[in-house]
């Protein structure tokens, strides 16, 4: 007997619009000032009417296209009815039978396994609810409700049950998050709840006789970190296997329903949630307050044409254009669109993709980590770094010297691009870092050094190859920026005479 | 419409019905549904379901924020607040 884990993910993504989905309240994470971003529409006051935010719909369609979905030419909004204090209207405006997109896929690279294609059943647009805060002390005090988030645009992306392990789920989520970053659709800030995930998990148990049994499906809610998704999947797989072995209960047995469980990140366990009595009876009905949206094939095409380059395409292009390894390309592209753009400018300026990749993924990345900032706040602009590296590529300065200049540029915060270029030249000049390969200038110094070190020269003549090291060192101290290779060559020639 | 369905509908609507109301509404709602059921006599096999009562589509607004209500105003209709949050009876998360 062996088993397969079967996982489908529902991901909720907050859209980066300026205002809410159906009203003009600002769409901003603002828990410090509860209930300051509401109006009659999002409070559900009688007589108020929702009006659809054009940008929210456009961002949704872009995402649908990027997920290879069919975009509906006719889409409408429905009321999903349930009572909960974070939703004062007592219904959520969502999409039921005619979502704006359906039947797509996303491909993600799973470590050590290759590319996994994950089917997307649908993506639909809906409004978010507010936030309830409960009395955690168990003292039974009132729950607090903040409705700042209520009515903000939320995209729900539902996968087919195509995922077979925690690692595959993680790979899918990483790629999805990256794609949304490139599209500029969401900031995917998980601490702020911009990306939240529910996982539907069960097991297929394969008997030795070729039989297959499915365990009851469990939906795990409240997964607000990718680590949590991975842990919850592994935890559920073990739990469901144990319960199956104990009880033999399987999907389709009388009285077996889908179970909803919560995720406790502190204890790393899932726990049973009171099933919302019969509340799963959502009584969807078309929202009479909102009219449908129609799109022509031409309009859909126009949006498609205006889409940015997706991470997968960019990986492909970088590896061809800059002759980089798949690993280097992934490291760069997976840092997000801004970082990839930075790299591309550096590479174009210096004309050497490998050099640019090394610097971006090592020197630049190290500084970003130390400063805990994004590439947008990095003091050295891409053109400046590219110009600096061009000098290394052209053999005008050594890599070691370039690091010196880089370090000094870092000291001066946020330099103007043109000023940075002048500063690079100035630092090279002041520190005498320019490689001196002009033999005329070196000649005299080499002769002086040889004259003062006859013994070492003799040692070298008698076969001690290492003896030449100190001589190179002395010349380099005299002429900063001397090319060590040239100096070595000159010394060998002169000793040989 | 039977008694069970009326009780479920009342629960979903968060309405508490007395015994006599359950009996009364079962009777009334049955009458209502029977009346509306006349529509079932029409053959709608080749008719596309209507998504909206008015033949209008694509009513959209620009993504421009406007001023929200002051917090005091937002909270003013609530049965219970602490001046910052809406307060509601404790919600259990774990059962």
Description:
- The complex is a heterodimer of chains A (497) and B (95).
- Chain A has 3 domains: 2-298, no CATH class; 309-430, no CATH class; 439-496, Arc Repressor Mutant, subunit A.
- Chain A is 40% helix and 20% strand.
- Chain A has 15 helices and 18 strands.
- In chain A, strands 1, 3, 7, 8, 11, 12, 13, 14, 15 and 16 form a 10-stranded mixed sheet that branches.
- Chain A starts with a strand and ends with a helix.
- Chain B is mainly alpha-helical and 95 residues long.
- In chain B, helix 1 (3-12) crosses helix 2 (19-36).
Largest sheet of chain B: none
CATH C-level name of the domain at 1-43 in chain B: Mainly Alpha
Q: What gap, in angstroms, lies between the N and C termini of chain B?
A: 33 Å
Mean of all residue-level pLDDT scores of chain B: 91
Total number of strands of chain A: 18
Gross morphology of chain A? elongated
Q: Give the N-to-C terminal Cα separation of chain A.
A: 82 Å
Number of helices of chain B: 3
Number of domains of chain A: 3
How much of the polypeptide of chain A forms β-strand, as a percent range?
15-25%
């Amino acid at each position: 007997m062996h088993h397969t884990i079967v996982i489908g993910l529902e991901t909720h993504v907050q859209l980066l619009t300026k205002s809410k989905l159906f009203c003009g309240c600002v769409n901003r994470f603002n828990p410090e000032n509860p209930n300051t971003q509401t109006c009659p529409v999002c409070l559900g006051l009688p007589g108020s009417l929702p009006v659809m935010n054009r940008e929210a719909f456009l961002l949704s369609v872009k995402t649908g296209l990027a997920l290879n979905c069919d975009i509906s030419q006719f889409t409408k909004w429905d009321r999903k009815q349930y009572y909960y204090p974070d939703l004062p209207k007592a219904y959520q405006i969502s999409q039921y039978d005619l979502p704006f997109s359906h039947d797509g896929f996303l491909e993600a690279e799973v470590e050590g396994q290759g590319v996994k294609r994950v089917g997307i059943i649908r993506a639909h647009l809906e409004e978010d609810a507010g936030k309830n805060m409960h009395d955690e002390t168990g003292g039974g005090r009132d729950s607090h409700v903040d409705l700042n988030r209520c009515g903000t645009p939320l995209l729900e992306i539902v996968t087919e049950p195509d995922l077979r392990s925690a690692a595959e789920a993680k790979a899918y989520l990483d790629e999805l998050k990256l794609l949304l970053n490139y599209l500029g659709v969401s900031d995917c800030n998980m601490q702020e709840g911009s990306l939240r995930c529910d996982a539907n998990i069960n097991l297929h148990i394969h008997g030795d006789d070729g039989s297959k049994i499915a365990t009851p499906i469990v939906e795990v809610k409240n997964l607000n970190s990718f680590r949590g998704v991975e842990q919850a999947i592994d935890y559920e797989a073990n739990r469901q296997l144990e319960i199956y072995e104990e009880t033999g209960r399987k999907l389709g047995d009388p009285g077996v329903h889908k179970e909803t469980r919560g995720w406790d990140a502190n204890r790393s366990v899932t726990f049973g949630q009171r099933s919302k009595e019969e509340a799963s009876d959502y009584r969807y009905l078309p929202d009479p307050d909102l009219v449908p949206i129609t799109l022509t094939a031409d309009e859909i095409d126009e949006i498609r044409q205006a889409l940015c380059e997706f991470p997968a395409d960019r990986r492909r292009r970088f590896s061809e254009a800059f002759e980089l390894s798949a690993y280097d390309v992934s490291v760069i592209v997976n840092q997000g669109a801004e970082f990839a753009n930075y790299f591309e400018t550096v590479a174009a300026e210096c004309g050497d993709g490998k050099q640019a990749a090394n610097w971006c993924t090592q020197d630049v990345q190290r500084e970003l980590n130390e400063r805990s900032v994004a590439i947008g706040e990095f003091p050295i602009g891409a053109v400046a770094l590219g110009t600096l590296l061009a000098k290394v590529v052209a053999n005008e300065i050594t890599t070691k010297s370039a690091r010196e200049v880089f370090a000094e540029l870092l000291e001066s915060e946020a330099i103007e691009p043109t000023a940075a270029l002048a500063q690079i030249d100035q630092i090279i000049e002041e520190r005498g870092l320019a490689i001196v390969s002009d033999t005329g200038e070196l000649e005299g110094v080499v002769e002086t050094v040889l004259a003062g070190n006859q013994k070492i020269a003799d040692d070298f003549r008698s076969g001690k190859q290492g003896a030449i090291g100190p001589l190179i060192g002395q010349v380099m101290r005299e002429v900063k920026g001397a090319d060590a290779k040239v100096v070595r060559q000159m010394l060998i020639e002169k000793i040989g005479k | 419409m039977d008694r069970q369905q009326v009780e479920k509908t009342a629960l979903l609507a968060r309405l508490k019905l007395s015994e006599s109301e359950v009996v009364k509404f079962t009777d009334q709602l049955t009458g209502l549904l029977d009346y509306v059921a006349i529509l079932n006599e029409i053959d709608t096999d080749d008719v596309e379901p209507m998504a909206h009562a008015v033949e209008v589509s694509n009513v959209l607004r620009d993504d421009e924020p406007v001023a929200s209500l002051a917090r005091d105003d937002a909270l003013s209709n609530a049965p219970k607040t602490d001046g910052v949050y809406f307060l509601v009876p404790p919600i259990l998360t774990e059962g």
